[in-house]
Write a structure and sequence with these properties.
Length: 442
């Protein structure tokens, strides 16, 4: 764009839409979201957001042009992605791969056999331009008036992925998108929309990272999932933002009769994270599982959780969280289970466990159980503990140094979550944990 650092305004939003060659409905949508954003309050709970100056952000940055071949990416970007194992993963373990730097996608691929089955795996911009019916889905699961950052996202979103799986099609190996912040003081606002038709299945993985800068950056993406009758969608997130990033995301799914939506996430970075993936169980027998682990280190506040909203009979949910806190950091788990009067026979289980690695570490668990009928099975459990000095002494007496011993203990603690992540990514997360302990103990 001509003026990527322009302040947020009707002129900026209109220009953004015009340069993306969007249909008029999307331009109108953006302007309506901007009006809502200006009226809605900042979140009245959770972390301190006073250092986040929304008037000082760069709302659009395009440092790299889109390419059709991996080899055509600039060398610096290619080296970054190679260090993360992306080209290798694409060849060995992925059905499709999209990569985004700052505000725009730079690369995308999809296996020809999936394309032949009718699978759509494309950029969100292209989907808006080419498929008029996308309008029926876009920001319907998460409406702009849901919260201030949903409205902001609706006004300035850029990049992201559209996935459509035809009825009965199973995508056996994962699709992945990778998001990288490369510019200082930028806001990244990718939009992910997944529509899984009746009886289909897909596993989607997103990875996120950013280099460390002194200036604050904002990541405020959005994920909307439609799992239609008997469909199965698994959404895995691996987040390692640097400590100057405010990670304020919105993620929500609608699960119809017999459908299943699973969320799996590993969060090791950011200055502040506020993220509460939600599944609305709309149809009889719909199921959801949310498995997450967070590792909060010095100066971080990770405010995460999950929500399951039961609106049909025979639905079930399982929310499981593992948190590790080190140094002067804080981890908060907010879990909500809501059971409507018509959701008879619903089953829900919420579980939160936290491991504190230092005396200064802080944690809170805030469970909410809102049950409006008596034909349900609902349970909640929470535990908080510190690393046992006896365990540390035993492991170190067997030849491990302190960082290795801590890493071994933590790996065992989060293993119920890691085992749900594909092997290649679980190995990468274990390596990131080990590196974190080496830096902290050094």
């Amino acid at each position: 764009m001509s003026h990527p650092t322009a302040r947020l305004s009707r002129e900026f939003v209109t220009q953004l839409s015009w340069e993306k060659n969007e249909p008029s409905w999307m331009r109108e949508h953006r302007l309506r979201c901007l009006e809502l954003f200006e009226k809605l309050p900042m979140p009245r709970f959770g972390p301190d957001l006073s250092e986040l100056d929304l008037g000082d952000l760069m709302y659009y940055a395009r440092p790299v042009d889109h390419v059709s071949r991996w080899e055509e990416l600039p060398e610096e970007i290619r080296r970054t992605f190679q260090a993360l194992g992306l080209p290798e993963a694409e060849q060995r373990a992925l059905a499709g791969l999209g990569a985004q730097v700052d505000s725009e996608e730079v690369y995308r691929s999809l296996l020809s056999r999936l394309r032949a089955k009718g699978v759509i795996f494309t950029s969100m911009e292209q989907a808006v331009r080419e498929f008029p019916w996308v309008r029926d889905y876009f920001m319907k699961v998460i409406p702009p008036d849901d919260n201030k950052f949903a409205a902001l996202h609706g006004a300035v979103w850029s990049g992201g992925t559209f996935v459509w799986i035809p009825e009965g099609v199973e995508v056996e190996i994962p699709l992945q998108a990778y998001y990288r912040m490369q510019t200082e003081g930028v806001g990244q606002f990718e939009h992910t929309l997944i529509v899984a038709e009746r009886g289909s299945s897909v596993h989607y993985i997103e990875g996120c990272s950013a280099p460390r800068y002194s200036q604050v950056s904002l990541h405020s993406g959005m994920v909307e999932i439609y799992a239609k009758e008997e469909a199965h969608v698994r959404f895995t997130t691996i987040q390692n933002w640097s400590k100057n990033v405010y990670n304020l995301n919105n993620k929500r799914a609608w699960a119809y009769a017999g459908a299943r939506v699973d969320w799996v996430s590993g969060s090791l970075g950011s200055k502040v994270t506020m993220l509460y993936p939600t599944t609305v169980l709309l149809g009889k027998g719909a199921r959801t599982e949310n498995l997450s682990f967070t590792f909060a280190q010095e100066g971080m506040w990770l405010d995460t959780g999950a929500r399951a909203i039961h609106r049909a009979p025979g639905t079930s949910s399982r929310l499981v969280s593992r948190s590790v806190v080190q140094g002067r950091a804080k981890s908060v788990f907010r879990g909500t289970v809501s059971v409507a009067p018509e959701a008879r026979g619903a089953k829900a289980h919420m579980e939160c466990s936290t491991l504190l690695l230092s005396p200064e570490a802080r944690t809170e668990t805030i469970p909410v159980l809102n049950v409006e009928n008596d034909d349900v099975e609902v349970g909640h459990e929470a535990t908080v503990g510190r690393v046992s000095q006896e365990q540390l002494f035993y492991l170190m007496s067997r030849g491990l140094d302190e960082s290795q011993a801590l890493s071994l203990i933590v790996n065992g603690f989060v293993s119920p979550i890691l085992k749900e992540i594909p092997l290649e990514y679980a190995v990468e997360l274990r390596r990131l944990l080990e590196m974190s302990f080496e830096r902290a103990v050094a």
